Amino acid sequence: MNISRSDLPLLVSLDTLLATRNVSRAAEKLGISQPALSTQLARLRDLFDDPLLVQSGRRMVPTPRAEALQNPLHQLLSDLGALIRDGIGFDAATSDRDFRIAAPDFLHAAITTKIMDRVATTAPNVRIAMIPGADVWTGMENDRIDLLITSVGTTPPEAIAQKLFDERFVAVQRKDHPRGTGPLDLDTFCSLTHVLIALNEAAFRGPVDEQLAKMGRSRQVVVSAAGFLMAPEVIARSNHIAVIPETVAMLFDHLLDRTAPPFDQPGFAVMMSHHPRRKGDMGLDWLKQQVKDALKPD
């Protein structure tokens, strides 16, 4: 097999085809027509003397040869991209790079709110995708996650990490709540009805309840919400209260009042991390600085 410079775009197409296993989706990601990609696939089959992808019902299934190629090919193209990026540097004003940031839902909202105006001004052609923080190390290995922002303890141990800030918890209630405003004492806290954020399952007990139990107290949880961003909407339309990260509460200052809980509720560190291979990537360094500036405490 003789590979020339004209074959390199074919390898990019093959990488996308193997990732999507769908000609129409791959064509959309590559920004070309489906017939054009089908022509490229025919050339790839000639190049490798293998069908590479075969139709099975509505799906395309890789051949054993294609499966053996997938990871080395993706790594090769990633290394080539890094080599080119490092060689030409990074100019935010003219760059058209796409970056992918993985984070929990409440940090998605905080990052999107705080970083987008900054990026739109300094890097008008840069695009940022906010994606779920699932299977993050594989995503980093495959260059499908550029930056991970998450709580300490959930950062992959192999990643290069640094602390962004310390998150704390606050108690929130709707504007014009019947209890009034001001400090929240323990008796009032326990007498009110509560919304609990249960990220992984429908639960009615969490860390706040464990803290109360240590003091011989309890609360009445009446709603279990599946995410931090769901709880404020429920609270804004009811007399319930909740204990949520302050980063979330600040996004809803127009709807909610916030105050310190009447007990010590431990917070957590928010970390930013990336694959060690990306060290020295000037574009990623720029992105990290934008995130740090956007999320630093006021």
TrEMBL record:
<dbReference type="InterPro" id="IPR050389">
    <property type="entry name" value="LysR-type_TF"/>
</dbReference>
<dbReference type="InterPro" id="IPR005119">
    <property type="entry name" value="LysR_subst-bd"/>
</dbReference>
<dbReference type="GO" id="GO:0003700">
    <property type="term" value="F:DNA-binding transcription factor activity"/>
</dbReference>
<dbReference type="GO" id="GO:0003677">
    <property type="term" value="F:DNA binding"/>
</dbReference>
<protein>
    <submittedName>
        <fullName>LysR family transcriptional regulator</fullName>
    </submittedName>
</protein>
<keyword id="KW-0238">DNA-binding</keyword>
<comment type="similarity">
    <text>Belongs to the LysR transcriptional regulatory family.</text>
</comment>
<feature type="domain" description="HTH lysR-type">
    <location>
        <begin position="7"/>
        <end position="63"/>
    </location>
</feature>
<keyword id="KW-0805">Transcription regulation</keyword>
<dbReference type="Pfam" id="PF03466">
    <property type="entry name" value="LysR_substrate"/>
</dbReference>
<keyword id="KW-0804">Transcription</keyword>
<dbReference type="InterPro" id="IPR036390">
    <property type="entry name" value="WH_DNA-bd_sf"/>
</dbReference>
<dbReference type="InterPro" id="IPR037402">
    <property type="entry name" value="YidZ_PBP2"/>
</dbReference>
<dbReference type="InterPro" id="IPR036388">
    <property type="entry name" value="WH-like_DNA-bd_sf"/>
</dbReference>
<dbReference type="Pfam" id="PF00126">
    <property type="entry name" value="HTH_1"/>
</dbReference>
<dbReference type="InterPro" id="IPR000847">
    <property type="entry name" value="LysR_HTH_N"/>
</dbReference>
